[in-house]
Specification:
Elements (H helix, E strand, L loop, with lengths): L5 H16 L14 H14 L8
């Protein structure tokens, strides 16, 4: 099983907290994120952008 780094887990956790507070927004159209899966995807995408250890899409 592929492992995630602690930094990438932190990014996902932060994205979920932002979603619950209503502050997380979609990149393309700026709409508020309501889906838990979408929040996780955003967190993983940000972690990939920073070069953290995350499995491929």
């Amino acid at each position: 099983m592929t492992k995630y780094s602690d930094a990438s887990q932190g990014k996902v956790q932060k994205a979920l907290h932002e979603m619950k507070e209503g502050k997380l927004r979609n990149g393309k159209n700026g709409k508020r994120v309501t889906s838990r899966k979408q929040a996780i995807a955003i967190g993983l995408s940000e972690a990939r952008g920073r070069g953290n250890k995350v499995p491929e899409k």
